[in-house]
What we know:
By secondary structure, the chain is mainly alpha-helical. The chain folds into two domains: 2-91, no CATH class; 102-191, no CATH class. It contains nine helices and no strands. The protein has helices at residues 2-7, 15-22, 27-42, 63-83, 88-93, 106-113, 119-124, 142-147, 165-191. Helix 6 packs across helix 9 (165-191). The two termini are 38 Å apart. The relative contact order is 0.11.
Amino acid sequence: MMILCYGRLYRTVSYLPATVICGWLPMKYSITIRAMMVSIEKSVTLHSENLLLNWPMGKKHDEALMEDLRTQLIKEWQKEWDIFQKGQWTKKLIKKVREHNAEVSFWMAQALSGHGVFAEYLYRMKRRETPMCSCGDGEETAEHVFTECRLFPGRPNSPLDVNSSEARLYMVETVKSMWQKEHDANKRTRAS
C-alpha cells in the first residue's frame, strides 16, 4: 500500500510495475537483504538461498558485500520484470528496472501505468460507457494517446523516452489536459 501512496498510483496497478515505476526494490528483496546480512553476521546458514554461496560467514558486513548483494537482487528483480505478463505499457516505457529518472507525480504515475484518466481504463472501472477515444481511431489507452492520437499535439518527434525531459513534459501535460476535459465533462453532466 505504501508504494501506491508514494507513487500516487491507482490501487489497480500491479505490485511489480509499481515497484519499477517508483524505483523501489520489491519488499521480498529488501527482506532478503536484511536476512542475509544478519545470517552473515551471526554465521547462520539460510536454507534455500543460493546467493550466499561464495560469501564469508561470521564477519560483519561491509559496503562491498552489501553492494554485491544489492546487485544480485536487482538482477533477480530484472528477471522477474522480464517475464511479468501484466503492465505491458509500463514495460514498453521502462525496460530495465531502475532505468528511468522521471519524478513520480500524480500525472506521471498515470502516464507510466496507463491507469487513470484514459477512457479504456475508465471503461474497465465502469465509469465510462465506451473505451473508444473521441478521435475515432481506436481505444483511448495510454499507448494510443501518447503515440498516435491526433487530439494531443506536441508529441516529441523521437520515440517516447521517459528519460527525456521533453517526453516527460509532454506526458504530464497531456494527462493534465485529459483530466481537465474529464472535469469539464463531469461538470456539464451534473449541470444538466
